[in-house]
Structure formats: structure tokens, C-alpha cells
Specification:
single chain; 381 residues; alpha/beta; 4-stranded parallel β-sheet; 21% strand; binds zinc ion
Length: 381
């Protein structure tokens, strides 16, 4: 439904997450909540935020479509800053092998792993990748995600990587959600370069690698100095970090690189979670993301992710909300446009079915999103 002007008024809470850069450490607890609050938006941009009485004094309420939100919390649209949502095929068979306890190496030997997805992605046409991608976006959108990052990385050759990136830029145009594409080079070594890893890296550097803001998959399997590397390269984010070292934590905190944590992946793999509490206490800016992908984590469940972050990673509900809003926005380099309910930012706002953001981890794994407003347009869920 299209409305050029929308007013949300008398909201139980406007959770503003105010600001235009990543929040670090103790700052992550400050959500800037306004009780009995209002948000006015016009032509896709937020124009007024504040106590309802004050906002009503500054606008002509009769020009607006009014939403009374007495029993609802209003938050910025969520930013899922790390996914791999464009891929061909599924790997349900190999998931059942993993549940049986088969090793990753033995699964690889039977044709599983990233190479399995690579083959299916190379064999998929544009329309198939697009249709599956749209379904996954719809899923995320229904859970309040208004901006999603998506990586290539399943083609492993120039042509298929470009198809993945084209599908994402096309979906960015046609789906209400914003899709931020990232080129993921050297995700794995493809069969045509087997035994020639150096040649593959040369091929990536010389023929494939365009210039992007850098994001790093770091310290996922063993401590490898990935966080330290991300800090010295001034990456926008360092992701995974299950095995980050104490030095890595300090360096990320000091460099202000967003640490993107992916609890659904740790859960799916039955692995230990990244040390979120330690990282926030050390002053890091933490973001949370789904990591939706065909192998290690086939889940787009934002509600489940929030519950895992609070229950197992000891993040507070306030920190989890910051991690999914302003810090997620910072992790995709867009904290000045999205990620908070602030005047001048895009009108990306969600309304929950309950009057407080504290219901998010409390109702474990349940979708509490009632309404999504994206670029000032209203979508009832
Ligand atoms: Zn990933």
C-alpha cells in the first residue's frame, strides 16, 4: 500500500537507536527509547521523531495516514549484514550425513560442501536464482529485515560470480528490500584449479577482483590472525570470529571495525559461540547477522538469532537490538542513511505486536513483527 505521508503516534515505545555510526561497547546499551512517541514520514524519509504531543504540534496530522500504536514497540528496520542468499540447489542430503557425525572431509569426498553448491549455481539460470532469491528476501522481510547484504562466492569463476551479482542488483530494484551486494572471492578453490591454489589467487587478483569495501570472514575455524588483519586493513567489518584471540578483540575495538557475529551458524554446526560478552566489554562494536547459506546455516530466522544472542552469548536485549540496527547498518557502510529512527534517514521502520523490544528474546524464535514500513510504504505482515 502506498502512502506518501505516514504518522505513527502514541506508540508504547519508539526505539530510535539514534546516531549515524556504529555503537561500541557500553554505548550499545543506549537505545534512545521514547515512550508515548511518534514518527512522521514523508516521501520515504523520516521527518519528525519525538513524544507524540510534540510531533503533533509540528505537523498537520490530517495530511497523514495515522497508525495508533498504543500497544506496540516501533523499531528501525533490521539490517541483516551477512548472508549468502543467492545460490543454486540444496544440501539436505549432506546435512543428514553431518547429523550422523560424518566428517566434513568425508562429506567433501562424496561431492558435498561448497563445490556441490558451486555446481548447482553454475547450472542454474538467472530466473531460477532470481526466484529462489526473492523467496528468501520475502522470508527476511516478514521478520522485519529492510536491508540485507548478500555475497557472491558460489560461482568461483568470473561468469557465474557476475550472474550472482546481477541477480542481487536486479532484486534490489524489484523487491522492496535493499540488497547490498558483496563480491566474495576465493570462497573455496574450484576443481579446475585443484592443486594450483596460487594460480587461483592470481586469477582472482588479476581478473576477477573489483574494488569493494572490505569485509573479512575471520577466525571461523581456527585463530588465524583474521581479526588483526581486518583491523590493520580498516575493513568495514570482520565476520564470524568464533575463534578470535584476545589481541584480535583489542585491535578490532581500537580500529572501530564492526565485529559481525553469526549465532545461527554456530548453533547449526553445534559449535561454541563467538565471545560476544567479552568483545562488547572490551569496547567492540558488535553486529548480528543470519549468515543464511545453503551449507553451514540454512536459516533466515531473525527471532531465533536474537534469542541465541541473548540466551547463549549473554548479550542484553538492548545490545541485540543495536547489533541488528545501527551496527548492522555500519557493517554495510550505510549508518548515515539507515539503522535508526532519526530525522533525515530513510523511512524503514517496523512495528512489533507487543509494547516493548524486550519481548524479542523473551518470545523465543517467534516472529513478533506486525508491520513493516520500507521507504515510507506500508506492508502488513
Ligand atoms: Zn558467511
Amino acid at each position: 500500500m502506498e502512502n506518501s505521508k505516514i504518522l505513527i503516534r502514541n506508540a508504547a515505545q519508539i526505539v530510535t537507536c539514534h546516531g549515524d555510526k556504529a555503537r561500541r561497547g557500553a554505548e550499545m546499551s543506549d537505545l534512545g527509547v521514547i515512550e508515548d512517541g511518534a514518527v512522521a514520514m514523508s516521501d520515504g524519509v523520516i521527518t519528525h521523531v519525538g513524544p507524540t504531543e510534540e510531533v503533533l504540534r509540528n505537523i498537520h496530522a490530517e495530511d497523514y495516514l495515522e497508525i495508533r500504536a498504543e500497544n506496540q514497540a516501533v523499531l528501525p528496520g533490521f539490517v541483516d549484514s551477512h548472508t549468502h542468499f543467492i545460490f543454486g540447489g540444496y544440501r539436505e542430503e549432506e546435512f543428514s550425513w553431518r547429523l550422523r557425525g560424518d566428517s566434513y572431509m568425508s562429506i567433501m569426498e562424496r561431492g558435498g560442501g561448497i563445490v556441490n553448491t558451486m555446481k548447482a549455481t553454475r547450472e542454474s539460470d538467472f530466473d531460477t536464482l532470481w526466484d529462489r532469491g526473492e523467496e528468501r528476501l520475502d522470508e527476511l522481510f516478514s521478520m522485519g529485515v529492510t536491508t540485507v547484504e548478500g555475497k557472491s562466492g558460489y560461482g568461483l569463476d568470473l561468469q557465474t560470480e557476475l550472474v550472482q551479482l546481477r541477480v542481487m542488483s536486479d532484486l534490489n530494484e524489484s523487491h522492496p528490500m535493499d540488497v547490498v551486494s558483496t563480491f566474495l572471492g576465493a570462497h573455496a578453490v574450484p576443481p579446475e584449479f585443484a592443486g594450483r591454489t596460487d594460480d587461483y589467487v592470481d586469477y582472482m587478483i588479476e581478473e576477477v577482483l573489483p574494488r569493494f569495501k572490505l569485509k573479512v570472514h575471520a577466525d571461523e575455524i581456527v585463530p588465524f590472525g583474521g581479526a588483526e588483519l581486518a583491523a590493520s586493513l580498516k575493513c568495514v567489518s570482520a565476520d564470524h570470529l568464533l575463534h578470535i584471540s584476545d589481541t584480535g578483540i583489542k585491535r578490532l575495538a581500537r580500529a572501530g571495525v564492526v565485529a559481525t557475529l553469526l549465532p545461527l551458524t554456530a548453533f547449526s554446526l553445534n559449535e561454541p559461540y563467538a565471545p560476544a560478552r567479552k568483545m562488547i566489554d572490551a569496547g567492540c562494536a558488535v553486529a548480528l547477522a543470519s549468515d543464511l547459506n545453503p551449507g553451514s546455516c540454512f536459516s533466515a530466522s531473525i527471532p531465533m538469532m536474537i534469542a541465541l544472542a541473548c540466551i547463549y552469548m549473554k548479550m542484553t536485549p538492548e545490545e541485540a537490538v543495536t547489533a541488528l540496527t545501527i551496527n548492522g547498518a555500519a557493517a554495510v557502510g550505510r549508518a548515515s542513511e539507515i539503522g535508526s529512527i532519526s530525522v533525515g534517514k530513510r523511512a524503514d521502520v517496523i512495528l512489533l505486536k507487543y509494547p516493548s523490544y524486550k519481548f524479542l528474546p523473551y518470545h523465543v524464535g517467534m516472529n513478533l513483527v506486525d508491520t513493516v514500513i520500507k521507504d515510507g510504504e506500508l506492508y502488513m505482515m
